[in-house]
């Protein structure tokens, strides 16, 4: 690698990684009444990124394997900030904020191939609490298992019914691994939602699958085409990788969280643990489930006190109804959470799934 390319990477990576982290901050703390303050706290790392990103355009094609992931990730990060700043200046609404933030997982997807060769990039996909873990770094330094990494099956943005998934690069078939099935929110896409979980799956050793609903959102009314589709997806993963039958978690955000109840309370459900996040709930969901299915079923409900879409009282009612019905239910109410995904909960959910929390 030429000295000029090295110098460009050294100049570009800090503002690129800082911009991605800042977008993650906005996504986590997004609350409509406080949007302006959240943007102020996020800072302006995109200004330096905008200045440094043109460096990669002049690289020769022999460095395309580095140039293109960096360029694509940078373009997505800048597009996200452009959209957010437009709303902050009064040109747009909450829908425009959500559209802008869709560029964040696209930036993460574009940059991920460089995690294997650039240590600062690898650190972006590790839990901060484990970034200095020598045993984890030793596992990541081993030769990559052939059937590991990020995969997409009929799951291009805008498509329905496909799925994306991640298998840790240090996977070995000689032990059974936990499986997390993570369901996106309404009008979402599993390919994007996968990146809400990849960092923690990579850090702690789990296989994570992010399906896309067969319809505009999950089958919360009418015919349920999603439950059989999830069953097919789980069967596919279990047929090719070693999955622990006692550690099968279905979790999800918003409509995906509500569908955790719908599909997870079914008698035929393969899932051993349920974790609905920022979900709606109706007592009929518990009433329709059989006593045998509910008895002792581990359920962890996560909800934000400032949720503006599904008031927190719904989650409190869900905890009470499911507890009375015999489930082994716990409840986490996050004081500063609005209607968004609290990525910090993933580590606790994996500890719980693994019997340590």
TrEMBL record:
Gene3D superfamilies: alpha/beta hydrolase (3.40.50.1820)
Keyword entries, A-Z: Hydrolase, Signal
Domain of life: Bacteria
Molecular function terms, GO-annotated: hydrolase activity
InterPro entries xrefs: AB_hydrolase_fold, Plant_Biomass_Hydrol_Est
UniProt xrefs under SUPFAM superfamilies: alpha/beta-Hydrolases
Name this protein carries in UniProt: Phospholipase/carboxylesterase
